[in-house]
From TrEMBL:
It comes from Stenotrophobium rhamnosiphilum. This is NADH-quinone oxidoreductase subunit F. Residues 336-381 form the NADH-ubiquinone oxidoreductase 51kDa subunit iron-sulphur binding domain. The lineage of its organism: Bacteria, Pseudomonadati, Pseudomonadota, Gammaproteobacteria, Nevskiales. It holds the Pfam family Complex1_51K. Its EC number is 7.1.1.-.
Length: 439
């Protein structure tokens, strides 16, 4: 299959080359920047918004909010003032590594997407907020930006249109909370990375108080292909597996034979992702349960493998598709240890802004550590269940703590006996676990 044909089936990864990504000349030879030229010369910003909306592209960062709808909330017109486009490339969700593939393997694809998105909302400046550990991605993105700038695709009077726009890479300092869009904006402004109250939403008041669109790397990288091939083509990429449009970067991590990232029609079943593409579990291991999209999603069981991996289907099953990268747990792993490891991460990454998250997450870790040592108390399990409610949706300032509670609440639901096994048989054995119990 030629690259041109491959781009019609796998528009996100057909150009990816981790060893030697395309430079500007090679990218343009493969059809790159056609979308930008089409948008600037033949379309109005609202027409670009409409095409993305008609394509039914839902955000690939985890929430699944329709991308075109998000753009349409930005004030337009000659008096709308300065506006910004921010790419959320702070990929710190445990078990997630898809955006790195795109940035390292096809940097010009993201650069073009940023420019087209900026045109669609009338932005003057863009920022790629990049996870600080992604050093190679930063180097390649900066090189791609420099090439685009030198070719007149960035900067003043882009392609003779009279429209000015420039884009920059901003590397973060390594905080998971920066994946939350308003915490990211605070960090970008040089402030502490605490989430902001919403409303107002960033589309109205974001970076420096100006209208701002924040989109995930994978979400943005779909945009050029939609303009080139059309909204109907994009919807058809799902092959009827989902009402959502496009392909999706799915992945597998854990004790599977072929861990990695695979571009497949959105709505592909979890079984196909794990068994056909991931090769199934390694010899000697059986699937115990799995996370559908990063650490902040609820565990699902082997009987859920035939579900379509799309936002609505996984939501109806009691979890979230999140980033769409499966993390498999094998039959030799203890669920108390698995969950304790996750909760330690979330406790460490709390910004400390609100009390339930700041104090509740370390409390859950303390209880889990006691159960892991076999020194838990009978009331500890009930306390963990209470924490999943006290730290649930609507009880905290942002979604960090509710996300942290998802693996805990589902592990308690499906594997309660493993938690009960950590309760000490005598009060003396439980002496080191002096966790107070709330009334």
């Amino acid at each position: 299959m030629s690259l041109e044909q491959d781009l019609l089936v796998k528009p996100l990864t057909a150009r990816v080359n981790l060893a030697q990504p395309q430079d500007l000349k090679a990218y343009e030879a493969s059809g790159g920047y056609v979308a930008l030229r089409t948008a600037v010369k033949d379309l109005k910003p609202q027409e670009v918004q409409s095409k993305v909306k008609e394509a039914n592209l839902r955000g690939r960062g985890g929430a699944g909010f329709p991308t075109g709808v998000k753009w349409s909330l930005v004030p337009m017109g000659p008096d709308s003032g300065a506006k910004y486009v921010v790419c959320n490339a702070d990929e710190m969700e445990p078990g997630t590594f898809k955006d790195r593939l795109l940035m390292e393997g096809a940097p010009h694809q993201l650069v073009e997407a940023m420019i087209v998105t900026a045109f669609a909302v009338g932005a003057c400046t863009g920022y790629i907020f990049l996870r600080g550990e992604y050093v190679v991605a930063a180097e390649r993105l900066n090189k791609a930006l420099a090439e685009a700038r030198a070719a007149g695709l960035l900067g003043k009077n882009i392609l003779g249109s009279g429209w000015d726009y420039d884009c920059f890479v901003h590397t973060g300092a390594g905080r998971y909370i920066c994946g939350e869009e308003t915490a990211l904006i605070n960090s970008l402004e040089g402030r502490r990375a605490n989430p902001r109250a919403k409303p107002p939403f960033p589309q109205i008041s974001g970076l420096w108080g100006r209208p701002t669109v924040v989109n995930n790397v994978e979400s943005l990288c779909n945009v050029p292909a939609i303009l080139v091939n059309g909204s109907e083509w994009f919807r058809g990429l799902s092959q009827g597996k989902s009402k959502d449009g496009g392909t999706k970067l799915y992945g597998v991590s854990g004790r599977a034979k072929r861990t990695g990232v695979y571009e497949l029609p959105i709505g592909t079943s979890a079984r196909e992702i794990l068994e056909d593409h991931g090769g199934g579990m390694k010899d000697g291991y059986k699937l115990k349960c799995w996370l559908p999209g990063g650490a902040s999603t609820d565990f699902l069981m082997p009987e859920h493998l035939d579900l379509a991996m799309d936002f609505d289907t996984i939501g109806q099953a009691g979890s979230r598709m999140g980033t769409g990268l499966l993390t498999v747990v094998d039959d030799k792993q203890n669920m108390v240890s698995v969950v304790r490891n996750l909760e330690e991460f979330f406790a460490r990454e709390s910004c400390g802004w609100c009390t339930p998250c700041r104090d509740g997450l370390p409390w859950s870790v303390k209880i889990l550590m006691a159960l892991e040592r076999g020194q838990g108390r009978a009331e500890d399990i009930a306390q963990l269940e209470r924490l999943t409610r006290y730290l649930g949706p609507g009880r905290t300032f942002c979604a960090h703590a509710p996300g942290a509670m998802e693996p805990l609440q589902s592990a308690l639901k499906f594997f309660r006996s493993e938690f009960e096994a950590g309760v000490a048989k005598t009060p003396t054995e439980a002496g080191v676990a002096k966790t107070p119990v709330a009334a």
